[in-house]
Write a structure and sequence with these properties.
The protein has 138 residues and is mainly alpha-helical. The protein contains five helices and two strands. Strands 1-2 form a two-stranded parallel ribbon.
């Protein structure tokens, strides 16, 4: 009888996920050689800035968007906070609707905005399967 460990399966891809080999290959030059600060004026930084702008243009083309509409963030929390804050402070959203099953990074942000800026906040119920209760939403 062998003492083999069962194959592990990872189910938390919403939090982090293995890097695709093609992504790793594309990123390696910027992790090893072209690592300059893209906000700087020296050559390392200018090379990095050009790569970021080319990536922005590529993503914009895929999404049929303008490059100025594409923002790169460090992760999910920063992305959610950017979108929520922009909706409230740039687009004038006066009522946020969320659900209690939302990630705490989002819930904490909307609760903070609700308390500090008096934006209306409503919670829509979730069904047992995790979907939003559309009748409650109405």
């Amino acid at each position: 009888m062998t003492n083999r460990m069962p194959k592990r399966i990872y189910f938390d891809n919403a939090a982090t996920t293995p890097l695709d080999p093609d992504v790793l290959s594309a990123m390696m030059p910027y992790l090893t050689e072209h690592f300059g600060n893209p906000s700087s004026i020296y050559s390392y930084g200018r090379e990095t800035r050009m790569a970021i702008e080319n990536a922005r243009k590529s993503v914009a083309k895929i999404l049929n968007a303008h490059p100025s509409e594409i923002f790169f963030t460090s992760g999910g929390t920063e992305s959610s906070n950017t979108a929520i804050n922009a909706a409230v402070f740039d687009l004038g959203c006066k009522h946020i609707i969320t659900s209690p099953v939302e990630h705490h990074a989002t819930l904490h942000t909307v609760e903070h905005i609700h308390q500090k800026h008096k934006i209306k906040l409503s919670y829509v119920s979730a069904l047992e399967n995790g979907h939003i209760d559309l009748h409650h939403l109405e």
